[in-house]
Amino acid sequence: MKALKYIAAGVAAVMLLSSCSVLKGITSSGSKTGSNTGGALAALYQIFKATGALDLGNLANIINIGKVLTGASALTDATESFAGEFASGLIEGSNQLINDNNVQNVITALRTLSKVDTSALSQAAANAAQGTATQLSNSTAGVAPTLTALNSIFKAMQ
Predict the structure, then answer these.
(1) What is the model's pTM?
(2) Shortest CA distance to 40 belongs to which of 60, 13, 10?
């Protein structure tokens, strides 16, 4: 359980750093960020495909959503070079679940997601890192639009 707290703390820290445009170039390359995002999307997609939903009480899902939000944030005002590296990373990180045929649709959906107020989700990840119970539902601010954007991404991945 302690390991999950540290992972969640790490995700929260990455989300904070990625939200600062000055630090975008320092925190990671486009390929690494895309790979992390692609891996998280693949994990969420597999759960969604198997169960038809995402359990917002599951810490692993919250962490993966945090990784996706970090990736979406990194695309805000991204250079063409960064976006190209990000796309390659998405494909690699998703183990080809995202591919040349659907990568642009996924990136478009991620850019839409970057415009959603995800502060409640960010706070949930930070709370989980501190061991505080996380209360999220579809009515929590930003959750429903985030899940709608994720659903669009999952449709693009099919």
Answers:
(1) 0.74
(2) 60
